[in-house]
């Protein structure tokens, strides 16, 4: 079994009636029906046997097939099942099941992901995103995710996938993030960010989310950034800081932006955030921002890492992390690194 195994199945009951259901493991579900544990209907209409099954790549698509098939007359069902003896039932349903039609955008994404799974890459990635359950990460590399996102963006029904939240898989979220970056209409992109951000549960998807659509209207974008940074949701806050770092740290920079980042913390954040907590991922992004600011806006950034104790502009944990990140940067001079190390 994989996260891409979703089936509509059809059973023939002892009295000649049909039962249609959804399962991820058809044989296990069949055994449950045969033992009387599957459903009230099959328990009272035993014995049962498997007539056909249709394989899909998403739960929504399989359950849609089940719902459409159940609405058919017995004669129509028998006709489709007869055709499935010569070709896969899923192909028959796509072609002939009324109202079912071609694959949805969600099915396209999951089928595309299934064809690019790399178990070794999954094993590499899982420790890097500890807030994602291991079973939700299948291992698809970023270049392939970009191709899938481009294919999704070209589909007329892409909005269906972008509205179907939350997604089950880490990689679905990665594709979703990349697809938002391909949106060309500014206000529509804002709606997509607002819809998606509350469902982000890891730093990788947060940092994957492109900011290009937001560059079109800086003033309006700053309004959104303030809202995201005041949301109380860790990865919305982190993304807001990331927007300030990626779009507002050069020509558009104003000193007040650094002050906004210094003040952007999770409610009740401790002095030393627990690893993998929401506060940790927010404070790490704050530290990253100031490390970047030391390169791009040094005059504004130095006070945030120099001042301590009662004069401090940053909490001590974030100040030290910013110094650490800056010292690791190749864009910081040797002299500046020596000065930073003296401030630890």
Kindly describe this structure:
This protein is mostly helical and 344 residues long. It folds into three domains: 6-100, 3-Layer(aba) Sandwich (GIY-YIG endonuclease); 103-215, no CATH class; 217-344. It is 56% helix and 7% strand. The chain contains 19 helices and three strands. The chain has helices at 26-34, 40-44, 59-70, 74-83, 89-96, 105-114, 119-125, 142-154, 158-163, 170-180, 186-196, 203-208, 218-229, 234-247, 255-263, 278-296, 298-306, 316-327, 334-341, and strands spanning 6-13, 18-23, 48-56. The protein has a three-stranded antiparallel sheet, with helices on both faces. Helix 6 (105-114) packs antiparallel against helix 8 (142-154). The two termini are 51 Å apart.
């Amino acid at each position: 079994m994989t996260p891409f195994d979703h089936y509509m199945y059809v059973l023939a009951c002892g009295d000649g009636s049909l039962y249609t259901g959804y399962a991820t493991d058809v044989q296990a579900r069949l055994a449950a029906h045969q033992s009387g544990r599957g459903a009230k209907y099959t328990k009272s209409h035993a014995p049962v046997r498997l007539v056909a099954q249709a394989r899909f790549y998403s739960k929504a698509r399989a359950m849609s097939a089940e719902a459409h098939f159940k609405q058919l007359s017995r004669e129509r069902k028998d006709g489709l099942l007869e055709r499935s003896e010569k070709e896969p039932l899923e192909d028959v349903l796509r072609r002939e099941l009324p109202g079912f039609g071609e694959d949805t955008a969600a099915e396209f994404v999951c089928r595309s992901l299934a064809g690019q799974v790399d178990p070794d890459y999954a094993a590499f990635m899982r420790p890097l995103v500890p807030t994602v359950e291991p079973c939700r990460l299948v291992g698809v590399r970023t270049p392939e995710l970009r191709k899938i996102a481009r294919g999704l963006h070209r589909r007329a029904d892409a909005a269906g996938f972008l509205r179907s939240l939350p997604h089950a898989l880490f990689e679905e979220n990665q594709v979703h993030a990349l697809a938002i970056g391909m949106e060309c209409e500014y206000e529509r992109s804002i709606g997509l960010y607002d819809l998606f951000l509350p469902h982000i549960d890891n730093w990788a998807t947060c940092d994957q989310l492109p900011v290009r659509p937001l560059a079109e209207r800086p003033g309006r974008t700053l309004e959104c950034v303030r809202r995201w940074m005041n949301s109380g949701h860790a990865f919305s806050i982190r993304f807001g800081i990331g927007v300030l770092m990626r779009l507002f740290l050069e020509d558009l920079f104003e000193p007040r932006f650094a002050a906004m980042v210094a003040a952007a913390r999770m409610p009740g954040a401790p002095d030393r955030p627990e690893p993998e907590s929401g506060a940790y991922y927010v404070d790490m992004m704050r530290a990253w921002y100031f490390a970047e600011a030391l390169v791009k806006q040094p005059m504004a950034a130095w006070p945030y890492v120099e001042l301590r104790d009662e004069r401090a502009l940053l909490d001590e944990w974030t100040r030290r992390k910013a110094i650490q990140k800056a010292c690791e940067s190749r864009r910081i001079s040797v002299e500046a690194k020596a000065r930073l190390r003296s401030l630890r």
